[in-house]
């Protein structure tokens, strides 16, 4: 299992669609957290995006997971960046 940082980039033009879909998006995130796939997530305070931390076997598996985000079919995400990461300290290393 590898750890990945996922960065979502949002634009002001998609704010209303994110607002309309946020509850469903967060329910989806909670299910991934409960399954142990998602380790942490949250939006940037300036509204420009969000950071999500996942454990997944590989990038292809993670991409399949991300395709299930309710934000995807409503085009609420302007860009997604996936970076493999090696945590050294902290609770995510558990």
Outline, from the CA principal axes?
Answer: globular
What composes the largest sheet? 4 strands, antiparallel
Q: How are the strands of the biggest sheet laid out side by side? A: 2-3-1-4
If you compute it from the alpha carbons, what radius of gyration comes out, rounded to the nearest whole angstrom?
A: 13 Å
Structural class: alpha+beta
Count of extended strands: 4
Number of helices: 2
- Helices and strands, in order, run as EHEEHE
What's the average pLDDT?
A: 95
CA(first)-CA(last) distance: 12 Å
Instruction: Tell me the β content.
Output: 25-35%
Residue stretches low in confidence (pLDDT < 50, at least 5 long) are none
What level of helicity do the residues show? 25-40%
Set down the secondary structure blueprint.
Layout: E1 2-9, H1 15-34, E2 38-43, E3 49-56, H2 59-66, E4 79-85
Antiparallel strand pairs: 1-3, 1-4, 2-3
Question: Notable features of this structure?
Answer:
4 strands; globular; single chain; alpha+beta
